[in-house]
Amino acid sequence: MVVREKNAELAKLAYGSNFEQVSSAPVTIALFTDTDLDKRARKIARVGGANNFSEEQLQYFMKNLPAEFARYSEQQVSDYLALNAGLVAMNLVLALTDQGIGSNIILGFDKSKANEVLEIEDRFRPELLITVGYTDEKLEPSYRLPVDEIIEKR
Ligand SMILES: Cc1cc2nc3c(=O)[nH]c(=O)nc-3n(C[C@H](O)[C@H](O)[C@H](O)COP(=O)(O)O)c2cc1C
Question: Hey, what's the signal peptide range on this chain (predicted)?
Answer without folding.
Answer: none
